[in-house]
Amino acid sequence: xxxxxxxxxxxxxxxxxxxxxxxxxxxxxxxxxxxxxxxxxxxxxxxxxxxxxxxxxxxxxxxxxxxxxxxxxxxxxxxxxxxxxxxxxxxxxxxxxxxxxxxxxxxxxxxxxxxxxxxxxxxxxxxxxxxxxxxxxxxxxxxxxxxxxxxxxxxxxxxxxxxxxxxxxxxxxxxxxxxxxxxxxxxxxxxxxxxxxxxxxxxxx
Amino acid sequence: xxxxxxxxxxxxxxxxxxxxxxxxxxxxxxxxxxxxxxxxxxxxxxxxxxxxxxxxxxxxxxxxxxxxxxxxxxxxxxxxxxxxxxxxxxxxxxxxxxxxxxxxxxxxxxxxxxxxxxxxxxxxxxxxxxxxxxx
Lengths: 205, 135
Prior knowledge:
The complex is a heterodimer.
Chain A: H1 7-15, H2 19-40, H3 44-61, H4 71-95, H5 99-108, H6 122-138, H7 143-153, H8 159-166, H9 170-188, H10 198-202
Chain B: H1 4-16, H2 22-25, H3 30-52, H4 57-89, H5 101-131
Protein backbone atom coordinates (compact mmCIF):
# COMPACT_ATOMS: atom_id res chain seq x y z
CA UNK A 1 0.00 0.00 0.00
CA UNK A 2 1.41 3.39 -1.00
CA UNK A 3 1.07 6.05 1.64
CA UNK A 4 1.39 9.51 0.20
CA UNK A 5 3.66 11.87 2.05
CA UNK A 6 2.13 14.78 3.91
CA UNK A 7 2.61 18.31 2.63
CA UNK A 8 4.83 19.09 5.61
CA UNK A 9 7.16 16.18 4.87
CA UNK A 10 7.40 17.20 1.23
CA UNK A 11 8.07 20.81 2.18
CA UNK A 12 10.88 19.74 4.52
CA UNK A 13 12.44 17.69 1.74
CA UNK A 14 11.99 20.53 -0.73
CA UNK A 15 13.61 22.94 1.71
CA UNK A 16 16.63 20.66 1.57
CA UNK A 17 16.70 21.30 -2.20
CA UNK A 18 14.87 18.15 -3.20
CA UNK A 19 13.24 19.19 -6.48
CA UNK A 20 11.34 15.90 -6.74
CA UNK A 21 9.54 16.65 -3.47
CA UNK A 22 8.63 20.11 -4.66
CA UNK A 23 7.32 18.71 -7.94
CA UNK A 24 5.06 16.38 -5.97
CA UNK A 25 3.63 19.41 -4.18
CA UNK A 26 3.17 21.10 -7.53
CA UNK A 27 1.30 18.08 -8.84
CA UNK A 28 -1.05 18.30 -5.87
CA UNK A 29 -1.96 21.96 -6.21
CA UNK A 30 -1.11 22.97 -9.79
CA UNK A 31 -4.69 22.53 -10.99
CA UNK A 32 -6.12 24.90 -8.39
CA UNK A 33 -3.55 27.58 -9.13
CA UNK A 34 -3.99 27.06 -12.84
CA UNK A 35 -7.76 27.42 -12.57
CA UNK A 36 -7.38 30.79 -10.87
CA UNK A 37 -4.81 31.90 -13.43
CA UNK A 38 -6.99 30.82 -16.35
CA UNK A 39 -9.84 32.99 -15.06
CA UNK A 40 -7.59 35.86 -14.11
CA UNK A 41 -5.73 36.24 -17.41
CA UNK A 42 -7.37 37.06 -20.65
CA UNK A 43 -4.57 35.42 -22.55
CA UNK A 44 -4.35 31.67 -22.04
CA UNK A 45 -0.62 31.55 -22.61
CA UNK A 46 -0.29 34.20 -19.91
CA UNK A 47 -2.29 31.97 -17.58
CA UNK A 48 0.17 29.14 -18.05
CA UNK A 49 3.18 31.42 -17.58
CA UNK A 50 1.63 33.03 -14.54
CA UNK A 51 0.83 29.75 -12.84
CA UNK A 52 4.37 28.52 -13.48
CA UNK A 53 5.77 31.76 -12.12
CA UNK A 54 3.85 31.12 -8.90
CA UNK A 55 5.65 27.79 -8.49
CA UNK A 56 9.06 29.25 -9.22
CA UNK A 57 8.51 32.01 -6.68
CA UNK A 58 7.23 29.51 -4.15
CA UNK A 59 10.34 27.41 -4.57
CA UNK A 60 12.60 30.42 -4.12
CA UNK A 61 10.69 31.50 -1.00
CA UNK A 62 10.36 28.03 0.48
CA UNK A 63 13.03 28.74 3.08
CA UNK A 64 10.70 31.30 4.64
CA UNK A 65 7.89 28.78 5.15
CA UNK A 66 7.62 28.27 8.93
CA UNK A 67 4.78 25.70 9.10
CA UNK A 68 2.53 28.24 10.89
CA UNK A 69 -0.19 27.75 8.28
CA UNK A 70 -0.89 25.03 5.75
CA UNK A 71 1.31 24.87 2.69
CA UNK A 72 -1.62 25.77 0.45
CA UNK A 73 -2.51 28.87 2.50
CA UNK A 74 1.08 30.02 2.17
CA UNK A 75 1.12 29.19 -1.54
CA UNK A 76 -2.11 31.10 -2.09
CA UNK A 77 -0.51 34.18 -0.60
CA UNK A 78 2.32 33.90 -3.11
CA UNK A 79 -0.25 33.36 -5.85
CA UNK A 80 -2.07 36.57 -4.95
CA UNK A 81 1.15 38.59 -4.88
CA UNK A 82 2.29 37.11 -8.18
CA UNK A 83 -1.07 37.87 -9.80
CA UNK A 84 -1.05 41.45 -8.57
CA UNK A 85 2.54 41.97 -9.70
CA UNK A 86 1.60 40.51 -13.05
CA UNK A 87 -1.03 43.22 -13.25
CA UNK A 88 1.69 45.84 -12.81
CA UNK A 89 3.90 44.09 -15.35
CA UNK A 90 1.02 44.09 -17.81
CA UNK A 91 0.62 47.80 -17.29
CA UNK A 92 4.24 48.38 -18.21
CA UNK A 93 3.86 46.17 -21.23
CA UNK A 94 0.86 48.21 -22.25
CA UNK A 95 3.00 51.26 -22.01
CA UNK A 96 5.29 49.52 -24.47
CA UNK A 97 2.51 49.28 -27.05
CA UNK A 98 2.38 45.51 -27.10
CA UNK A 99 -1.30 45.40 -26.28
CA UNK A 100 -2.45 45.38 -29.86
CA UNK A 101 -0.48 42.22 -30.54
CA UNK A 102 -1.84 40.59 -27.41
CA UNK A 103 -5.41 41.43 -28.31
CA UNK A 104 -4.96 39.75 -31.65
CA UNK A 105 -3.68 36.69 -29.84
CA UNK A 106 -6.67 36.65 -27.50
CA UNK A 107 -9.10 36.85 -30.34
CA UNK A 108 -7.42 34.18 -32.36
CA UNK A 109 -6.79 31.79 -29.50
CA UNK A 110 -9.38 29.28 -28.54
CA UNK A 111 -9.49 27.64 -25.13
CA UNK A 112 -9.32 24.17 -26.67
CA UNK A 113 -6.38 22.95 -24.70
CA UNK A 114 -7.98 23.98 -21.40
CA UNK A 115 -10.62 21.35 -21.77
CA UNK A 116 -9.96 17.71 -21.19
CA UNK A 117 -12.51 16.63 -23.70
CA UNK A 118 -11.71 17.71 -27.24
CA UNK A 119 -14.98 16.36 -28.56
CA UNK A 120 -17.52 18.56 -30.29
CA UNK A 121 -20.37 17.26 -28.18
CA UNK A 122 -23.02 19.86 -27.28
CA UNK A 123 -21.96 19.73 -23.66
CA UNK A 124 -18.36 20.46 -24.52
CA UNK A 125 -19.33 23.28 -26.84
CA UNK A 126 -21.50 24.69 -24.09
CA UNK A 127 -18.61 24.55 -21.62
CA UNK A 128 -16.33 26.37 -24.01
CA UNK A 129 -18.92 29.05 -24.68
CA UNK A 130 -19.52 29.39 -20.98
CA UNK A 131 -15.81 29.70 -20.28
CA UNK A 132 -15.36 32.37 -22.95
CA UNK A 133 -18.33 34.30 -21.61
CA UNK A 134 -17.20 34.16 -18.01
CA UNK A 135 -13.63 35.16 -18.85
CA UNK A 136 -14.91 37.93 -21.07
CA UNK A 137 -17.24 39.24 -18.33
CA UNK A 138 -14.44 39.07 -15.77
CA UNK A 139 -12.09 40.91 -18.11
CA UNK A 140 -14.33 43.96 -17.83
CA UNK A 141 -13.43 44.24 -14.16
CA UNK A 142 -10.28 45.64 -12.64
CA UNK A 143 -7.68 42.96 -11.84
CA UNK A 144 -8.25 43.48 -8.10
CA UNK A 145 -12.02 43.02 -8.45
CA UNK A 146 -11.48 39.96 -10.61
CA UNK A 147 -9.11 38.44 -8.12
CA UNK A 148 -11.45 39.25 -5.22
CA UNK A 149 -14.26 37.36 -6.92
CA UNK A 150 -12.10 34.35 -7.73
CA UNK A 151 -10.78 34.10 -4.19
CA UNK A 152 -14.24 34.48 -2.67
CA UNK A 153 -16.10 32.20 -5.03
CA UNK A 154 -13.54 29.56 -6.04
CA UNK A 155 -11.38 29.55 -2.95
CA UNK A 156 -14.07 30.27 -0.34
CA UNK A 157 -11.96 32.91 1.39
CA UNK A 158 -13.68 35.43 3.65
CA UNK A 159 -13.65 39.15 2.83
CA UNK A 160 -11.28 39.77 5.73
CA UNK A 161 -8.85 37.12 4.54
CA UNK A 162 -8.86 38.53 1.00
CA UNK A 163 -8.51 42.10 2.26
CA UNK A 164 -5.58 41.07 4.41
CA UNK A 165 -3.88 39.29 1.54
CA UNK A 166 -4.50 42.08 -0.94
CA UNK A 167 -3.70 44.87 1.45
CA UNK A 168 -7.00 46.70 1.11
CA UNK A 169 -10.24 47.06 3.09
CA UNK A 170 -12.87 44.34 3.41
CA UNK A 171 -15.43 46.82 2.04
CA UNK A 172 -13.40 47.26 -1.15
CA UNK A 173 -13.21 43.51 -1.59
CA UNK A 174 -16.94 43.13 -1.03
CA UNK A 175 -17.74 45.79 -3.60
CA UNK A 176 -15.44 44.08 -6.08
CA UNK A 177 -17.14 40.74 -5.57
CA UNK A 178 -20.61 42.23 -5.99
CA UNK A 179 -19.54 44.04 -9.10
CA UNK A 180 -18.13 40.83 -10.53
CA UNK A 181 -21.33 38.92 -9.82
CA UNK A 182 -23.40 41.70 -11.29
CA UNK A 183 -21.32 41.63 -14.49
CA UNK A 184 -21.57 37.88 -14.73
CA UNK A 185 -25.28 37.95 -14.04
CA UNK A 186 -25.81 40.48 -16.82
CA UNK A 187 -23.78 38.36 -19.20
CA UNK A 188 -25.11 34.94 -18.28
CA UNK A 189 -28.66 35.40 -17.08
CA UNK A 190 -31.66 34.48 -19.26
CA UNK A 191 -33.10 38.01 -19.34
CA UNK A 192 -30.15 39.49 -21.23
CA UNK A 193 -30.77 40.62 -24.77
CA UNK A 194 -27.95 38.64 -26.27
CA UNK A 195 -29.01 36.47 -29.19
CA UNK A 196 -27.61 33.32 -27.66
CA UNK A 197 -28.11 33.06 -23.96
CA UNK A 198 -26.11 30.46 -22.22
CA UNK A 199 -28.83 29.76 -19.75
CA UNK A 200 -31.09 28.49 -22.46
CA UNK A 201 -28.31 26.15 -23.51
CA UNK A 202 -27.73 25.26 -19.88
CA UNK A 203 -31.30 24.11 -19.48
CA UNK A 204 -30.62 21.37 -21.98
CA UNK A 205 -28.13 19.75 -19.64
CA UNK B 1 -40.05 44.74 7.42
CA UNK B 2 -38.88 43.48 4.03
CA UNK B 3 -36.41 45.69 2.19
CA UNK B 4 -35.62 44.51 -1.37
CA UNK B 5 -32.27 46.33 -1.61
CA UNK B 6 -30.97 44.95 1.66
CA UNK B 7 -32.31 41.51 0.89
CA UNK B 8 -30.55 41.37 -2.48
CA UNK B 9 -27.26 42.38 -0.93
CA UNK B 10 -27.71 39.67 1.64
CA UNK B 11 -28.64 37.11 -1.00
CA UNK B 12 -25.23 37.34 -2.66
CA UNK B 13 -23.54 36.58 0.63
CA UNK B 14 -25.88 33.73 1.48
CA UNK B 15 -25.38 32.19 -1.94
CA UNK B 16 -21.61 32.55 -1.84
CA UNK B 17 -21.60 30.88 1.56
CA UNK B 18 -23.92 28.15 0.30
CA UNK B 19 -26.33 29.09 3.06
CA UNK B 20 -29.71 27.38 2.81
CA UNK B 21 -31.43 30.35 4.47
CA UNK B 22 -31.39 32.18 1.12
CA UNK B 23 -34.73 30.57 0.20
CA UNK B 24 -36.41 31.65 3.39
CA UNK B 25 -35.27 35.26 2.97
CA UNK B 26 -37.15 35.66 -0.34
CA UNK B 27 -40.25 33.74 0.65
CA UNK B 28 -42.67 36.65 0.44
CA UNK B 29 -41.25 38.73 -2.40
CA UNK B 30 -41.53 37.62 -6.03
CA UNK B 31 -38.91 40.12 -7.24
CA UNK B 32 -36.36 38.99 -4.71
CA UNK B 33 -37.18 35.38 -5.57
CA UNK B 34 -36.43 36.11 -9.24
CA UNK B 35 -33.19 37.83 -8.24
CA UNK B 36 -32.22 34.85 -6.12
CA UNK B 37 -32.88 32.44 -8.98
CA UNK B 38 -30.83 34.54 -11.40
CA UNK B 39 -27.92 34.87 -9.00
CA UNK B 40 -28.04 31.19 -8.15
CA UNK B 41 -28.01 30.29 -11.87
CA UNK B 42 -25.04 32.59 -12.47
CA UNK B 43 -23.01 31.15 -9.63
CA UNK B 44 -23.97 27.62 -10.63
CA UNK B 45 -22.59 28.22 -14.09
CA UNK B 46 -19.30 29.61 -12.81
CA UNK B 47 -19.03 26.74 -10.35
CA UNK B 48 -19.55 24.39 -13.24
CA UNK B 49 -16.49 25.89 -14.89
CA UNK B 50 -14.38 24.94 -11.91
CA UNK B 51 -15.16 21.35 -12.73
CA UNK B 52 -14.95 21.53 -16.49
CA UNK B 53 -11.91 23.71 -17.10
CA UNK B 54 -9.61 20.75 -16.88
CA UNK B 55 -6.77 20.49 -19.35
CA UNK B 56 -5.94 17.05 -20.66
CA UNK B 57 -3.42 14.76 -19.01
CA UNK B 58 -1.03 15.42 -21.91
CA UNK B 59 -1.14 19.09 -21.08
CA UNK B 60 -0.24 18.39 -17.45
CA UNK B 61 2.61 16.09 -18.41
CA UNK B 62 4.25 18.82 -20.47
CA UNK B 63 3.33 21.45 -17.87
CA UNK B 64 5.15 19.59 -15.09
CA UNK B 65 8.10 18.73 -17.34
CA UNK B 66 8.49 22.43 -18.16
CA UNK B 67 8.18 23.36 -14.50
CA UNK B 68 10.86 20.84 -13.51
CA UNK B 69 13.16 22.23 -16.19
CA UNK B 70 12.61 25.79 -14.96
CA UNK B 71 13.18 24.74 -11.37
CA UNK B 72 16.48 23.10 -12.28
CA UNK B 73 17.54 26.26 -14.09
CA UNK B 74 16.55 28.32 -11.06
CA UNK B 75 18.57 26.12 -8.73
CA UNK B 76 21.62 26.22 -10.99
CA UNK B 77 21.36 29.98 -11.37
CA UNK B 78 20.94 30.35 -7.60
CA UNK B 79 24.06 28.29 -6.90
CA UNK B 80 26.07 30.17 -9.51
CA UNK B 81 24.98 33.47 -8.00
CA UNK B 82 25.81 32.28 -4.49
CA UNK B 83 29.24 31.17 -5.66
CA UNK B 84 29.93 34.55 -7.28
CA UNK B 85 28.77 36.33 -4.15
CA UNK B 86 30.99 34.14 -2.01
CA UNK B 87 34.00 34.94 -4.16
CA UNK B 88 33.22 38.64 -4.18
CA UNK B 89 32.91 38.85 -0.41
CA UNK B 90 35.82 36.57 0.42
CA UNK B 91 38.64 38.46 2.22
CA UNK B 92 41.79 38.79 0.11
CA UNK B 93 44.50 36.48 1.42
CA UNK B 94 47.32 38.33 3.16
CA UNK B 95 50.93 37.38 2.69
CA UNK B 96 52.31 35.41 5.54
CA UNK B 97 54.18 37.67 7.96
CA UNK B 98 57.82 36.74 8.42
CA UNK B 99 59.69 39.12 10.66
CA UNK B 100 63.29 39.56 9.56
CA UNK B 101 66.20 41.91 10.03
CA UNK B 102 64.74 44.38 7.54
CA UNK B 103 61.67 44.76 9.68
CA UNK B 104 63.73 45.21 12.84
CA UNK B 105 65.82 47.96 11.22
CA UNK B 106 62.82 49.58 9.64
CA UNK B 107 61.06 49.79 12.96
CA UNK B 108 64.11 51.18 14.71
CA UNK B 109 65.12 53.67 12.04
CA UNK B 110 62.86 56.65 12.85
CA UNK B 111 63.77 56.93 16.54
CA UNK B 112 67.45 56.40 15.71
CA UNK B 113 67.38 59.00 13.01
CA UNK B 114 65.62 61.42 15.34
CA UNK B 115 68.07 60.74 18.13
CA UNK B 116 70.99 60.99 15.75
CA UNK B 117 69.81 64.28 14.35
CA UNK B 118 69.25 65.74 17.77
CA UNK B 119 72.51 64.40 18.96
CA UNK B 120 74.35 65.76 15.92
CA UNK B 121 72.79 69.20 16.27
CA UNK B 122 73.38 69.31 19.95
CA UNK B 123 76.93 68.21 19.37
CA UNK B 124 77.44 70.88 16.71
CA UNK B 125 76.03 73.53 18.89
CA UNK B 126 78.10 72.55 21.82
CA UNK B 127 81.20 72.35 19.59
CA UNK B 128 80.61 75.85 18.20
CA UNK B 129 79.93 77.27 21.58
CA UNK B 130 83.02 75.79 23.19
CA UNK B 131 85.58 76.46 20.46
CA UNK B 132 84.11 79.54 18.79
CA UNK B 133 84.10 78.05 15.28
CA UNK B 134 82.41 75.26 13.59
CA UNK B 135 84.08 71.89 13.20
